[in-house]
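lol forgot to send this yesterday, sorry. struct tokens for the thing we talked abt
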């Protein structure tokens, strides 16, 4: 029995045979009744099984020997010679429990019998987990007597928590649907027929394999050619499916080995790309440092050029002043003029030398500035190539990350770009 199947948990009688009210407790779906001959063991069990499985109450169902001597109304009213009772209402029920859970379902039959006038029956199922004798009852106390519910009273009390039907066929369909789950009622009927055959007294008198075989053969319906053909096709399909399954298992093992090798290969490629990315990052950082140094040197040279230009301007002003002074001195006496001339000549030579030195220094600075500009352009081109290479490597790493299901790549790449922009801003701020 699987965890999803129902098993018999309790069985009960109310106003039936010589019982006023009795409940039998099963253990894991099993019940053992002990007693002397004639104590009512067979009557008790035949009242439950198979009556409560399909609702049929014909006399041959109540006697394992197939006799029709005793009717259900006799079980309900009791023997006329023993009990002076002509009318009685009673109930039979079986409670099922789903193994491993606290789910319950109860099926039962209510009967009202009048002696020599037949029997009226109704059938019920409790599907909302209520349990008879605990939170649901089949009778009520009236003037000190236990009075079973009529069909209408029972229907009102069950409400939406179950079903009350009035035909044996409806009851059988409900039991099959909610408890046994056979695909068709015919298959369910075959099961009940088999149970009736197996309880035959022949098994206790002549316990032979041939007798059991004959009983089972008579109980089970014959198989048609279509059913046998379907069985044959099913067995053949099972063989093909088994072969396909074995082939798929071999292919699965091969694919697992191939996948493992590809995984190692992808890990190696990813490690190589990561190493290249790290090297490129270091080269990019060095290029940034060199570019920043060149920018600083360029700024220093610009300051030096401005200072030299200012010195040159001052030297020209001094030369113009000396020339003016020379013209003025030429109007004085000759000796003084000669003296002034010699002095001014020396100063002119001095200033010319200073001017020449400044011009040479200016030329050297200009040449150095030109060389620095060329170096800067070369470094900027190299930096641009490095940035382009970094972009390409990031693109390749993104593709490799997607193939290797490395979800951290996007976060790492974004962090890398953000750090580059931060370093550039910091260095430009230092240069300014």
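and heres what i got for the seq, position by position
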């Amino acid at each position: 029995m699987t965890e999803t199947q129902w098993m018999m948990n309790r069985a009960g009688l109310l106003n039936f045979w010589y019982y006023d009210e009795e409940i039998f407790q099963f253990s894991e779906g099993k019940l053992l009744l002990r007693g002397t001959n004639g104590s009512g063991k067979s009557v008790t069990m035949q009242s439950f099984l198979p009556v409560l499985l399909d609702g049929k109450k014909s006399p041959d169902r109540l006697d394992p020997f197939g006799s029709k001597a005793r009717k259900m109304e006799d079980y309900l009213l009791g023997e006329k010679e023993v009990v002076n009772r002509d009318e009685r209402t009673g109930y039979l029920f079986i409670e099922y429990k789903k193994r491993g859970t606290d789910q319950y379902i109860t099926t039962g039959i209510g009967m009202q019998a009048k002696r020599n006038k037949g029997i009226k029956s109704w059938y019920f199922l409790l599907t909302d987990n209520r349990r008879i004798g605990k939170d649901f009852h089949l009778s009520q106390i009236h003037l000190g007597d236990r009075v079973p519910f009529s069909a209408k009273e029972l229907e009102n009390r069950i409400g939406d928590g179950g079903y009350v039907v009035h035909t044996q066929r409806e009851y059988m369909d409900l039991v099959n649907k909610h408890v046994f789950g056979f695909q068709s009622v015919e298959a369910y009927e075959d099961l009940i027929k088999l149970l009736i055959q197996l309880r035959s007294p022949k098994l206790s008198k002549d316990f032979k394999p041939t007798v059991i075989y004959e009983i089972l053969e008579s109980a089970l319906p014959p198989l048609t050619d279509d059913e046998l053909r379907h069985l044959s096709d099913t067995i053949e399909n099972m063989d093909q499916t088994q072969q396909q399954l074995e082939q798929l298992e071999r292919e699965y093992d091969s694919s697992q080995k191939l996948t493992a090798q590809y995984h190692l290969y992808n890990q190696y490629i990813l490690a190589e790309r990561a190493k290249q990315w790290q090297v490129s990052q270091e080269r990019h950082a060095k290029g940034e440092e060199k570019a920043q140094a060149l920018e600083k040197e360029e700024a220093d040279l610009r300051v030096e050029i401005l200072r030299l230009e200012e010195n040159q301007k001052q030297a020209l002003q001094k030369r113009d002043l000396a020339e003016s002074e020379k013209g003025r001195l030429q109007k004085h006496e000759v000796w003084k003029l000669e003296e002034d001339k010699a002095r001014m000549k020396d100063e002119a030579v001095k200033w010319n030398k200073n001017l020449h030195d400044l011009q040479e220094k200016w030329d050297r600075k200009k040449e150095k500035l030109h060389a620095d500009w060329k170096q800067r352009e070369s470094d900027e081109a190299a930096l641009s190539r490095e940035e382009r290479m970094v972009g390409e490597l990031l693109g390749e790493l993104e593709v490799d990350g997607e193939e290797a299901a490395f979800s951290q790549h996007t976060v790492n790449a974004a962090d890398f770009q953000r750090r580059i922009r931060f370093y550039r801003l910091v260095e430009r701020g230092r240069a300014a």
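The CA atoms of residues 81 and 197 lie 33 Å apart. anyway ping me if u want another try
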